[in-house]
Amino acid sequence: MLRIAKSKQVPPDGAAIVDNYRVLHFDELPILFVGTNKFSTWIIGSLVEEDDDRKVERYFHIPVTYQTFAAFLGGRVSYRDVITNAGMVYMVDKSARVNLSTHYVMEPSLVPSQYLPSTDSFCPSQEQIRPLNYVAKLQGRLADAQSANPADLRDVQVWLGNVIETAYDYFRNVLGRPVALMLPSTGGSFELNYGIRFEQDPQRVLFSHNPELYDAFAQKFISFCVNDLPLNLDAITAEERVGAASLSSPALQSLLDSFTEVYPQPDGALRALKTSLREASVYLGKISTTTASESYKQIALLNRTGFGRDLSEQVLGVVDDLYNSLPLDGTLDSTDVVQSDDETRDPPKYTIIVYSLNRDTRKGYARIRNQDATWSQPTIAIEGREPLRGTEYTASLHNDKEIDVLGYARRVNGKYKHITIKALAKTYPT
Amino acid sequence: MTFSRVAKRTKCKCMEETLCLEDTQTVYLHKVSNEKPVESDFRTYWERGKKPNDLNDCLAVCLHKGLSFYPSPLADNVVVHWQQTHRFSPQWKTYICRIKIKPLAGLIRHTPSRAQYPGAEHHHTFFKCDSFTVDRLDLTTASLLSEG
User: What is the pTM assigned to this prediction?
Assistant: First the structure.
């Protein structure tokens, strides 16, 4: 066993893994693993050797920056390079008999070459996170001060992960089950970072099909959900068949074309695509509702590849409260009857009571009677630029007062889902 | 053959006769630290001081009381898994040992692993009898590096 001077012994604080422990390769013992120390620094560790007589196992624990951690999990940096470029190397001796660990520190240059991992010691492919990361930048309100209400954030983190998984879920038979992983937040801004990993039978060759095609589709899918879906509801709900000359929506047609390049059953592609679009839009709708919170106004979604000087980003879209206006509440299917006012005509009059209003974004919620005398609670968006303070809208908000407005409404199965308000229907006395 | 060391300090019956065989025909693969294997290369987890967290989990207890053997050629692809290990831990168990079990060395039991790695379904556990010594095995070794 490699001899280490007693003087190299250190307290466990920096070396010991206390959280996020995950074994990446196991062979009788944990061979390769990751986790975080008490300072939340990522550590990549490996088994070095065993002393059968002393009944001690020795491990390397290498503290790394987030960038190095992501590069290693992305398969871009070998474990050998991680060690040789590390600032320090911890050696951890674990005694099987007394359940005690002893920690040592040494310079990477002093690690004997025969102990260094091989040059092809890359993260096992089934544990790799795709080199493409998804980033959600929270913008506005508290997020601009690099903080957020934990309750607002908790659900959003899950929902965004669900959207990313949905984008890859078509291909689970090829790639494995997609798992969106939260990665450490990037320093200096309020960003939620996600990686995607595929849980797969390791005997299958991972990504034997060109993985970039799947990434390309997933990016298009997310981009479509955020940017185009609100404008293409009719095309999505319409009963159209693949094989028709083209879909009425060019954006949906483009997405479908990308999808059929990688989806194994072209005949069922459109139906599968619509199902997933509805699923993703439900999560985006939920995220959209939280934009009324104090934490942020909107979330910019990006993908990011590379790191350091090779870092590149592409904006996929911005989730704001627009999704509130969609009738996508998880129940929409092809049997739903969607009715929208004809916007080429003068806007009809509606009587509403505003019960939630953001004066900056001019968006909020209102109550309105349906034809069957029940109530709907549609989202509202008030057009115009005049300040809303002291207007009939805020009077309605504060006094529970009915007001008449002119606007275009969208109804699903007779229930109001959204009203775009053009103006008040009459001049109210001040 | 007696197996009092296997039965010692556990209620688990690792040696149920219907499941354990004396197999002197099959060639098994086992990973070792020495080119010329010595006694320590055939120490069980239990003998090395490692015990499962739950001592009532008889599957885990019995795995700790035996040695991992893989039948060849059925489980030859386990070498791919070991070579992966070797990339990260080049000083740990660098040799593959090909073994034929001589008569009266011990009993072997098929204990397929639920873990997902090549050859896992062919995992066997070899239980040494009380009088086991290394010369009860017919051995040849090759290094993992040369296999690569």
Answer: 0.59
